[in-house]
Amino acid sequence: MEFLCNSVGLTALAVISSLVLLLHILPSKLQNQKKKKYHPIGGTVLNQLLHFNKLHHYMTGLASKHSSYRLLGAFRTEIYTSDPVNVEYSLKTNFENYGKGDYNYSNLSDLLGDGIFTVDGDKWRHQRKVSSYEFSTKVMRDFSSVVFRRNVVKLADIISEAATCNQPMDIQDLFMKSTLDSIFKVAFGVELDSMCGSNEEGREFSNAFDDASAISLWRYVDVFWKVKKFFNIGSEATLKKKVKVAEEIWEAVTTTSTSTTADTKKLSNFVEFAESVTDKALEKMHYLHAAITETLRLYPAVPVDAKVCFSDDTFPDGFSVMKGDMVAYQPYAMGRMKAIWGDDCEQYKPERWLNDKGVFQPESPFKFTAFQAGPRICLGKEFAYRQMKIFSAVLVGSFVFKLSDETKPVNYSTMINLHVDGGLHVLAAHRNSRSSS
Predict the structure, then answer these.
(1) Known binding-site residue numbers
(2) CB atoms within 10 A of CB 105
(3) Which run of H or of E encompasses 309?
(4) Binding residue numbers for heme
(5) What does residue 314 show for φ and ψ, rounded to 5 degrees?
(6) Which listed residue, of 59, 74, 286, 414, carries a Cα 20 to 30 Å from 133's Cα?
């Protein structure tokens, strides 16, 4: 009986103590929660699924209402921002608290592996250091320029033949193949030659990678993708097949080099023009640099870039971000924000990048986010600009282009990278008789 009384007394004391603690702590916790405020809700991840084919239009519409907003998901909240101040905070000021995380890694690693685009911490720092050294060497810069000039000559020959026959061509496909050829040659010394079609492996690699990229992005809205991966069905079975094709081709071409096409280059009518586009000449092409930059402002290669918040935080706008939240900035939407670029933000206007003397004036990388910013800023930025400027100078200087069907709308395909859906089919005409002779 005494034992029972003691037990009841101890239990009662524990309950009373707990109530006292709760009454003391609960108001404090509620007060702290009230102090926190969260970004406005733009919708749910289901809305992304419903608008997937026009995803960037949908998200630009939300960004025009709220510079930063939330989409609610079954397992996490997703925060999207087009505010340059928030972008700078997550990409630079508090860089260590925002990384790829397990969420992005699981979605992308089947395609991109443990590469610099999917990892954080020491793995990322090591790869960044090695890559940074490679991109900064004069040998790499000089060699890449030689490769770009040689490949633009090959592309100009293809376009010239099509122009002579008045034959439409998919210029996006040719640009993608020429870029792929350049990367393989510069990075691995391999003559992939996918652009000229003499290497079937190049075409297969490009197609497999594009398909795998689209499916990898689909994972962000497909809550069942892990189930499909486990049973190897549906889109996940396709992804596995496409990645295997890409890996096998990668292994084959990086272990076997083919001879160069230097002799063919000497026979082209475009060699002299391409060789005149020197690095010194490129430095003076301010309007061309502005035109390319303006294109990237409106059509960035990566339209949305996501990170994960590693610990509870507060953005400069005063709104709370919780551990595990996905945090993404939106280059595509940011290029269309009046608050950032003015009332003419949706107009293609290279002049916005030039001063009164016609000299190019860069903007903050947290405003123009096509190449990321902060410690993760794209190492290949100058590499990309050099290729685009060499190709643009030679091709625009040699041909006039127009859409093969000007009544057909041009739309994007929703992938990790921004692609024109179905390709960009154009007709070309020679600017002068010398090019077609």
Answers:
(1) 378
(2) 17
(3) strand 305-309
(4) 378
(5) -130, 125
(6) 286
